[in-house]
Amino acid sequence: MHCNNELRIFVGTWNVAGRSPVGSLDVDLDEWLNLRDAADIYVLGLQEIVPLKATTVIGVEDPTEATNWNLLIGKTLNNRYGLPMANTFGASHHQ
């Protein structure tokens, strides 16, 4: 059996420079994710999602901003696809 189906994959990375998607940054992900010509799979990487302060550099990290970004991405993709799956790699959360 031979399958000729095509699969479109969007891979993107964004250094948000410690900015929050709530309040200080007016974020419309539709354009970045190119939802008009949507992919089947989205692979997204965000760097520096925590505020760039001395406390985060020494290891005191609050996962709130990562949660805010995940919620925004989920809301954006949910409008088109339903509930997306999200995994966080390479982040450490200290309590």
Automatic annotation (TrEMBL):
Keywords: Hydrolase. Transmembrane segments: none annotated. GO terms for biological process: phosphatidylinositol dephosphorylation. One of its GO terms (molecular function) is phosphatidylinositol-3,4,5-trisphosphate 5-phosphatase activity. PANTHER family: TYPE IV INOSITOL POLYPHOSPHATE 5-PHOSPHATASE 6-LIKE, TYPE IV INOSITOL POLYPHOSPHATE 5-PHOSPHATASE 9. This is Type IV inositol polyphosphate 5-phosphatase 3. It comes from Sesamum angolense.
